[in-house]
Amino acid sequence: MHTTTQKHLFAFAAIGFATLLSSSLPAAAGRAGGAPAPLTIDNLKTALTLTDAQVAQITPLLDSINQGQQALNSAQTASTEARAAAQAAITAILNESQRSALAQVFTPARGAGGGGGNPGPQAGTVSPLPDAVEVEFAPPLDKEQGNFKHKPKTTWADVPAIVVPEGIPRGKVIAFSAPPTLEAAAAPAAAPETAPVAAPGDAAAGGRGGRGGRGGGGRASWVYIPAGYKEGDVLPFMVDHDGSATAAVQTQLIAAMDILIAEKKIPMMAGVFIAPVSRSQEYDTVSGVYADYIEKIVFPLAEKTGSVKLSQDPNARGSIGQSSGAPAALGMAWFHEPAFTRLIIYSPSVVPIQRSTAYPTGAQAYPDTLIPNSPKKPLRIWMQVGSNDLNNQYGSWPQHNNDMANALKAKGYEYQFIWSEGAGHVERGVERQTMLEAVEWVWKTYKAK
Fold it and tell me: Residue 126: its pLDDT value, please?
């Protein structure tokens, strides 16, 4: 019998994955009048040579997929995240050889590819850049530009979380709620409730808990104040998109800052963690609108909540984002003043998810036109993609990130790009393995004014 949580996962996964299946099942699965035939366990059992135990695990998910088909007929599409979650749910059950067979059964949706709907590379066909240098854990700190590749010692799931050693002072994290939009902030509202949060302990193991976002009608947010901070001092800081008290990117960034500040490898700095409300619209849209909201609404509340002052110096501002959070970070560097000049981006969605008249290919404009055709900016960018990253109707994440690295290199940017062999989209093990080096590298050139 499955738990309530598992049932929720299956229901959530079904909506996204069935859309992928409806346009991608091989002819053997059968079609009638253009409508997708129900997916049967026999299709998968034969194609993947599943064991009876695996069949027992997968069957409830497939049942949920088929139950969701009727709703999908009217919805037509589902979010990238829903598809990715569903595919990961099945993939996690299979062994390595079966995972490669899975890619043959669930080929990318029609129209998958770069930008305008042109067919893109099939999953697994994109290779690391020819000049990518193999490293054991993370790119070396002394390289100011370059492409790299790595793999886990065993599996990415086995990579341990960053643990702050005994004796190192821990920063303080305080949760607060911000108005969800500029418009909401203009309306009369009560002062935000704040509550001190214990430094992450068990949560630092990299849990995937919810992002928050609309708690109490506001936007869930957190501010990190480093140990030893003297009230009144102006601090450099990092902004984390997709904020969540249990997310790997947030817990690992906090642990990394605790360690690196204590070791004097980075300056004493603050952190601001922000949950999304309308995630894709906020993050994937190529503009400075979301950055403007953060500057005007979230930062003043973070300063008030934490009794801390955040720097206005672009050189002292950094941003970290994963997936669609990466375009959000890039927007803060490209379209906002004061700019954010130190970026860490995992599995960047530099693909056409949110199109506009100004940017008809959405965030794909960064590798295609914005970086190549704009004057070089004083940016320092650390980025990563997995060999098994997303490949869907928006294009191939590995290919577009290779393009991004090539654009940065051609323009002479300070950047490090690492290809994670065997890693999926926003692989938590990659974050755990690389966060310390990524944070140290992007701040290595910082000099206080």
Answer: 94
Question: Is residue 173 included in any domain, yes or no?
Answer: yes
CA-CA distance, 405 to 270, in Å (whole number)? 29
Tell me: do 83 and 219 sit in the same domain: no
Rounded to an integer, what distance in angstroms lies between the CA atom of residue 416 and that of residue 319? Answer: 15
Say if 125 falls within a structural domain.
no
Question: What is the sign of the dihedral through the CA atoms of 424, 427, 429 and 430?
Answer: positive
Q: Strand, coil or helix: what is 73?
A: helix
pLDDT in tens, 394-434: 999 999 999 999 999 999 999 999 999 999 999 999 999 99
Q: Where are the alpha helices (DSSP H) in 269-313?
A: 279-284, 289-293, 299-306
* Contacts of 7 by beta carbon, 8 Å cutoff, 6+ apart: 60
Q: How far apart are CA 15 and CA 315, in angstroms?
A: 43
Tokens of 79: 């979010």
The DSSP bridge partners found for residue 238 are 271, 318
End-to-end Cα, the chain, rounded Å:
61
pLDDT digits (tens, 9 = 90+) for 342-395: 999 999 999 999 999 999 999 999 999 999 999 999 999 999 999 999 999 999
